[in-house]
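Z., the sequence and structure:
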Amino acid sequence: MVKIAMIGAGSLVFCQTLVKDILATEALKGSEICLMSRTKPKLDKMHDYVSSVIIDNKLPAKVSSTLDRREALKGAKYVIVMIQVGGVDAFGMDYEIPLKYGVDQCIGDSLGPGGVFRALRTIPVLLDIARDMKELCPDAVMLNYANPMGAVCTALGKASEISFIGLCHGVQTTLDLISRYVEVSKDDIVFLAAGINHMAWFLSIRDRRDGRDLNPVLREKIEQPEYYVQEKVRAEVMRHFGYFMTESTGHLSEYLPWFRSSERALKLYCDQPDFGGESGAYYNYCRMIADKFQHINYLEHESTKLSGRSVEYCSYILEAIETDKVFRLNGNVRNDGYITNLPAGCCVEVPIYVDSRGLHPESVGALPSQCAAMNQSNITVQELTVQAALSGDPEYAMHAVAMDPLTSAVCT
């Protein structure tokens, strides 16, 4: 029986999604799922829900739960990490403190001052998990969902010896959007996407049926008002830099110096509600969810029925390793020469094949120069943040914030 440790299982919505994906996979139905969280009330709710899923679907799986991380890790083959260190209260400071100085963030969990602050809280915990894994389950694979992905995975690559991959759904959701825009089924699209997390580039987009280049079709569509208004920042980046990117306007506007640096820029490019650019959108959403879940048991009313799997890569990776059924994805790994014009050792998001022998990142070569330059502006912040976390020297943290593209565009 394969043991799967889920660290941060108090993340009810996301953990529920991953667990149901795992239990809906034939090769994983007999797994031992060990839920771990530091928040006992949420942990108990998740344990009860997973137990109901197993019973209602007559599965041979087992579930256990613990507040002890080391107990969860002992003997695990897979370690899934979905933690948010400091919770919503710390996230509030990530948003509100920079805002006092004019740095307006929509999401604030990956780059910018908010991303730096979150990384400084998260990296030490991830490295503690990695050290425990080295002792208790040295052959296990860590599947990390914790943000800020780039900084966290850079730290894991520099300061741990475990096998890991950072997972996001930006490529999948962007492919869905491209499919709608070019009016070609995503199953008929062959693509190459590479770069860094939240800033990967669709370098090639072709119709599988006839080899047609879909990039000109996409460029034409985003110039039409009804399409442009949905993704203003991504459209502007493609217009000026030639390629479509893997992150929405709300996120992407934070990673660049041009779209949130003034009230005029915000009104022009970030005027759509919620994740379309609204100030504090993700923090406000997380606060609303946290307040709501204090008074109701979200999982009490959720179906235990297993149906199709979500777009999250997790269950497909586990299935590939267990069955040797090859799976292709885009994941975040240490740059061991996969993208030649980005720094060695940084975190890159590249195509990866998975089979029973593990993870196999593909070499992409050099990105277009303008794409690499934009990626480098974010990598610099990530590298300085990691140096701050590893050394404990606050000067590196100050350097990271000072070099952040949005902060440097706003502050003197």
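The chain has a mean pLDDT of 95. The first helix runs from residue 12 to 23.

Let me know what you think.
H.
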